[in-house]
Structures are given as C-alpha cells and as structure tokens.
Amino acid sequence: MTNPYIKTVKHPAALALAALAMPLALHAQTTDEKLPEVRVEGRATSDFQVRSSASDKFTAPLLDTPKSVTVVPAAVIAQSGATSLTDALRTVPGITIGAGEGGNPVGDNLFIRGYNAQTDTYVDGIRDTGSASREIFALEQVEVVKGPNSAYGGRSSAGGGVNLVSKTAKAENFNNATVGLGSAKYRRVTADLNRTIGDNAAVRLNVMGHDAHVAGRNEINGDRWGIAPTVTFGLTGPTKVALSYYHMESSELPDTGIPFNNPFSTGPNVAKNGNGTPIDVARDTFYGLVNRDFRDTQTDIGTVDVKHDFGNGLTFRNVMRYGRNTNDYVWTQPDDSKGNVLLYGTVWRRANTRVTETESLANTSSLTGTREFGGIKHSFTAGLEFGREETDRSSYIFTPGTNNPLTKTFTCPTSGIETLYNCAPLVNPNANDPWEYTRSVSPARTNVQTNTRSAYLFDTLEFSPQWLLNLGVRWDDFRSVLDVPQYTLGGATPTPAQHAEVNSTFANYQAGLVYKPSVNSSVYVSYGTSSTPPGNDGGDGSDGLTTVIRNLKPQDSKNFELGTKWEVLARRLSVSAALFKSEMNNARVTAPDGTTQNVGKKSVKGVELGVSGNITPNWLVFGGYTWLDGRLDDNGYVNTAASGAPAQWEPSPYNGNVFPTTPKNSASLWTAYTVLPGVTVGGGVNYVSKVYANINNTKYAPGYTRFDAMASYEVNKNVTLQLNVQNLTDKLYFDKVSSPHYAGVAPGRSAMLTASFKF
C-alpha cells in the first residue's frame, strides 16, 4: 500500500537524507493502519531511547525537533560505568574535553563542534555558573544540544550546550543502592531512596561517596562525596512544588599531563625537533609535586520549582535557584614555553593556582501550552529569565617563589635541589621531591558581577500532520562589570586598579521547517543564531572581560542544518542524520592596526549520525558519528617585525588552519545484549582522530580507538552484579587537549565490580 504521507520532496539534499533512512523505515513496516497518528511523549520501551526533552523550551517531541539533540539516558550512564559528566559525554561524538591552563580553569572544559562551550552547561535548564567537575549520581539524563544555543540559553557559544536533568521525587516507593570496588583503589557507593508522603507528596534522597586513583597514573587520585535531597508537594493536584538541594565536595591531586614535542627548532637544535606529538615518556610520568599540588571544589545548589496547571491547556512554572561554586587549587603545568624541554631535557614546574568563588541567583518564569488559531495548532512556551552572577577570583603566592634560583627566571639548565625542585628532569621526575614553601592568597583579586535579563518565545506550528514549523526568539540584556582593586606584591610598585564594563543587548533566533513522510519520521531544514559577548564566562573561564575587549560587539554565529530522524523497527530504534554549516563572521582577532576587533571569520562544516534504542528486544545500541571540518578562515593579523622594531602587521599565516580541539572524525558506540535471562554482555568503542592543540596546527594529540567491556548478572530480583573493564586494551592515548603546552593522559585499563541493590 502507498503511504499517503509520502509527498514529493523538492529539495534534493532532503531527498537524499530521506532515502538513506527509508529502507529502515520500510523494513520496520510502519504503515498508517498499524500506527495511528498520535504524539508519544516520554520514554519508549527501550532504556536507551528517549523521545522527549526534559526542557520546557522544546515544544515538540525530539522526532519533530529540527535540531541535533543527543540524550544520554540513565541506562547508558549506568551500563558504561560512567562516574562523572565527562565519562558520560564520552558516548557523544563531536564533544572534546579541553585541558586547563593559566587563564583556563581546571574543570569541565567542553568543546562542542569545535567551539568553546565551557560556560554552556545547564542544570534543569538554568545556567550552571563557575568552573566545576560535575558528578552524575543525582542525574536522570544528560541532554546535548548541538548548534547555536543562544535561543535556548542566552549568551553562549556557536557549538551547543549541555543540560543536566536532575532526579526528582516520584509518586512511588523504591530503594536503590550500589557498592563498587575495583582496580586503582576504586571504591564507590550510591543510594537512591524515594518515599511517598500520603497521597500527594514524596521525598527522594540521593547520596554518593567516591574514592579512586587513576589507572596508569600512579600519583593521581581523588575523593568526593555528595548529597541531593528533593521533596515534591502536590503530585496529584494542579499545583506542584518541588524543593531540592544539591551538595558535592571533592578533593584531588590534579593531573599534569605530558608536554608536547617542539617542532619549531632550527639551527643547531634542529636534531632535537619533535613532530608535535606529546613527549615519548612513560605513561605514569608525573611532573607535579605531591606535597604542593591539590584541588578542592564545592558545589551547592538550592532550587524552588513551582508549577501550576490551569486545566485549559496552559501551565505556569516558576523556578528560583541559588548556586555557589568554589574551585581552589595549586596545579603543576609542565611548561615547555621556555625552551627547557628542547635545550636541556628539563621541565619548569609552573604552578598554576586559583582561589575562586562564584555565586549565582536566577529566576525563570514560563507559560507553556497548546492553542489553535486559524486552524493551526500551536505548542508554545514563553518566558522571562533574570540572573545575577558574582565571581571573586585570586591566586596563591609562594615563599620562596617558583623560579629557578640559579637563573632567577623560568629557565632550567639543571634540575634538583639546587633549583629548589622548581625544575624537574623530563624523564623520571620525582613527584615526592621535598618541596617546601609558605603559601598565601595573593592580594591581587578580581571581582566580576554579571546581570542578565531575558525574554523568549518558542512555538511549534502544526499546519497539517505532515508539515510543522518550529520558531524561537530570545532577547537578552547582558551587563558585566570587572573590578581589580589596586594591590601591592611585596615591596613592588602598587599595581593600578582596573575597571571594565560591557553593556550589550542582542536577539537570537531559530527556525525549522519539518516535513513528516510518515508518523514515525521527519525531514527538516533549520537555521539558528548565537551570540558570545565580551566577558561571556562571567569571570571564571577563558573568555574573560578585559579593558581591551570591553567595547567590542558580541561574536555572532549562524548555523544552517538539514537533517532527518526516524523511529524504526516498530519504533523501538531511533536513527538520525544531519548536515550542517556554522559561520562566525565577526570573530575577535587582531586587526591590521594591532587592536582587537570583530573582524575575523570561523566556519565549521559537518555531518552528524545517531542511533539509540533496540535492534531486537534483547539488543540495545546507543552511538553516533561526527565529521567536522573546522577552519580559521580569517585569523586576523600578526606582528612580523623583529624584536624592538616598529610593529609590522601582516595577515595571519594561520588563515585556513584547522580549529584546535576539533577532531575531523569521531565516533562512539555502546551496545548491550541479553544472552540469557538475567545475563547481559556489552561493550563500547570510541574513536577520535587527530586533535590539534594550537592554531599553528603544529602540536597535536594523535588519534585513538578505545574499547570497553561490560557483563552483568541478575542474581535475583534484588541484587545485580556488573563488571566493567575500561580501556580494555590498555591503550595509551591523550584525551584532553586545548593548551598548546601539554596533553592530558587518559586512564589506563581498569576494572570495576558493582553490586546494585533494590529493596
């Protein structure tokens, strides 16, 4: 029988995408007689398949949302053995984890589609400010939105955003707990307890304790603990009030990574040139100092969420949140910028330090509903958001200092006690060198206050069962103020005070036309924009406000996307494909006169493929593939004059180079198969191609393929045992690259046995 929903598709690219997926749809035999046209909201039968976002700003199911969205469900997080946000995001291709540096804090430094998305992490739709390393013990799922994110979140990058969906109290009683033991001194316990209170309220408590070393990196270790209680009133009434609190503390010895080979040397040192990859030293080489380095963090989030259903298709919601993040560390960067690695075979133990506290207060109010006007069905959300963020940032100073006392500089012709252990040998450094010091907080303090006001409207217009139009607009008023008081270090001349302000208003849009060949499929074309103003990081990141950039306009990005989504095999399996191109035509670069201006250009072209759900009732899959071609089309100008001569600005020699932190190819697949009742085996594979660490494209982390394995056994209805082996082949690879000085070393092979209890 001919499907009456299948019309002529005039756009040849749309036709090509639809043709790719059509055989799967036909194989699934999804016809109108078998599947009535209904909107299916919420979870599918598969634990790997999620059909709708938890965000109110998505006004259609994911199948009919004209945007690339990947949802990592709780089942994938649990089966893959993830214990942090970065672990969970390993299953999403197109995301790179960046390394910390002097101006870039240690934490979850995310790059999505090549763009820095460090500030684009949200908890239940509200921006999570401040640098942090986030846990997953209190999360229901992780949602990754690809492409410009400003229509959803306001100021943001061009690459996308990550929304963490928290566990909330439910109208049922359950008790879940896990106990895990493993190699590298791994120990982890969690509990998830939910209780109803009468007929109309419930309380839920999540707790976590974690302690582990890093496999293959002998000194690196960390412990953390967290608690997340929630209580919900009005479960069965029109008004629901949810109160929640999240607290997490961590303490760790942060990793230093491995410095890059230097490919620049000429003349008598040319024989010492490397090829730009990390130095070839043993995996466990650690350049830090055990009795100096540390990292302590604390996160507190309190939320009041009120929702009222008017009963006529309209729902009002107001969410108020207070948050506080602290990030306090001394972290050794194996600095290669002074020529020590090349000339002397030594490393300067550069002490990167940070003492930061970020507080935030946010309130968002929204009205969500459905209405029909002029024969067109509208599913809409309109809202207002207000936010205030304040970051106080300082650093540590040491007595004695961290220079080499023999040279009075950072150069290290020798190493050892005569350098006060501030210089270390490149090979076999001793992490337990008896480095002695007095540490105090520097009087150089930076305060940044950021205030935002926003209004937004999203609407999905359904003209017919086959044609939908998704529209969104958001207006933002962004104001950020930087203050650095005058201070004095030792007996030096007082440093003058600094003050900078940015006041910016900007609007962003998204529009997507969706054609549905059948009820279980969609083909779409979409357009979206994004704005990144000066001071985008709110005072705690790599995109800070300065006196140099305070008067610049926001960097504006636009994205064009053509995609298709299908639910096949009796709607058990979701598959998707998308072609996209994003452009930033006013990137901040050095102009011909040597000033910083909005005159640069960047672009990224790419392909996204995704799959999630059941191939058979016993076989689950979750994964995807991303191809990215990111280019610095116009990187501005560089000074080519000799030292001491008048500046001579020439076009950047890096024009046309590849984005740093942007692998051309990345893919991931997690799969699990129930071989016998109660017995499941599974595994994962991750592939990432070469990733450049600098715009010069001379330093890079090589590509890699990593394998993981899992087996679980249901002892009885109350107890399940799960064994995870991570990095099965003990592959040496580098998983954090954004600094041109070093690359982060990924963990080696490790094994974890987890007992899960239901009682």
From TrEMBL:
Compartments, as annotated in UniProt: Cell outer membrane
Domain called TonB-dependent receptor-like beta-barrel: residue spans: 259-728
Xref: CDD domains: ligand_gated_channel (cd01347)
Topology in membrane: Multi-pass membrane protein
Predominant subcellular localization, coarse grouping: membrane
InterPro entries named among the record's database cross-references: Beta-barrel_TonB, Beta-barrel_TonB_sf, Plug_dom, Plug_dom_sf, TonB-dep_rcpt-like, TonB_rcpt_CS, TonB_sidphr_rcpt
A Pfam family per the record: TonB_dep_Rec_b-barrel
Lineage, top ranks: Bacteria, Pseudomonadati, Pseudomonadota, Betaproteobacteria, Burkholderiales
Alphabetical keyword list: Cell outer membrane, Ion transport, Iron, Iron transport, Membrane, Receptor, Signal, TonB box, Transmembrane, Transmembrane beta strand, Transport
Signal sequence coordinates: 1-28
UniProt protein name: Iron transport receptor protein
One of the GO biological process terms: siderophore transport
GO cellular component: cell outer membrane
MF terms in GO: siderophore uptake transmembrane transporter activity; signaling receptor activity
Keyword Iron listed: yes
KW Hydrolase (keyword) present: no
PROSITE patterns: TONB_DEPENDENT_REC_2, TONB_DEPENDENT_REC_3
SUPFAM superfamilies the record matches: Porins (SSF56935)
Domain TonB-dependent receptor plug residues, every copy: 62-160
Record family assignment: Belongs to the TonB-dependent receptor family.
Motif TonB C-terminal box boundaries: 742-759
